[in-house]
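Question thread 4412

I'm putting together a teaching handout and wanted feedback from people who do this every day. The idea is simple: show students a protein as raw sequence, then show them the structure tokens that encode its fold, then repeat with a second protein so they can compare. Below is the first pair exactly as I plan to print it.
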Amino acid sequence: MMRNYQLPCADSGVFLYFLTDSCLTLRTLVILRRQWCILILSTRNYIWKMSNIPAKVQAFLKSHDLAALEFEPGSTPTAETAAHRIGVPVGQIAKSILFKGKDDTYRLVVAAGDKKINSGALKRATGAKHRMASAAETKEMTGFLPGGVCPFGLEDTPVAILLDVSLDAYDTVYPAAGTDGTGVPLSPDYLLRITGGVKVEVT
């Protein structure tokens, strides 16, 4: 006898339909419901998360055989929150901060998450005094908002990329991928090579 089972998946708002010619127990139906609900939610989250990374960053990562870790939006806006979410020391988070020099050059400084940028050292390294760029300037020059700024996909911008030596203390670092819910694992050497950045000591 053919039986049509309708299983509501409360978390996703979806009803799951099963057509079977065998008798399913209540326990079996519950297990099926849980498994399919998890599958639906996981698939939806995966598609949604992937689309959250800016297209230019996705293209850059793909061209360099890199894959981003992506989490819920707003979960990694600072080095501390990113470290907690990824499960690594704060220093392994490669924070990216945009500065504007007196010479009108925008420079993106990427440093270990537990270090502070020394303005004097930055002036000595570049020959110009700097101030931190505003959120509006950061968005305009990089396409990213503070909390998701990264050194990827900037090849068509006038932004200079400076990588602080503090990153070299780790085999793997995690810059963002253009959003405040991402991290990209890679080595400091590879980061230097693919971004065309300049190594400096500014922390």
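The second pair follows. I'd like the answer to focus on this one:
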Amino acid sequence: MVLHAGGDKRTQNQDIKLAKALARELSEIVVAKTKTRPWDVAEHLETGADMAAYLAAILEDGDSSLVTAALRDIARAKGMSAITRKTGMGRESLYKALSSQGNPELGTVLKVVRALGLKLHAPTEQNRIRPAHGHRPVA
């Protein structure tokens, strides 16, 4: 809020009310013009290298629900229709398997990974895959 200096005591309350009203109007204008939307990782997975690095980072974590989510993100980035064709799975089955409540079987995971054009890699703990940009993982 901005208050103008130089007023006198007789108009001080009126000046404060006017300043508050102007601040509210400005806030409403700014909020009305500001549009946000949730961040979607699928919009940023543009290349096979992006997708591989994303999945590799998730596999490092070892959380199966994150792996399922990552596969879903990559499938959305590539197009779910194309993935259903390549896996031979029905669209509903694929969505269910990759949903946040899904618990896909290993066979399903392997089909999806293959359809995405990716491979699962199992390095030893000493020879883990280096993340993108040549940075070494923190142990």
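Top answer:
Good format. For the second protein you could add a caption like this: The mean pLDDT is 84. Helices lie at 12-33, 48-61, 64-78, 80-87, 91-97, 106-115.
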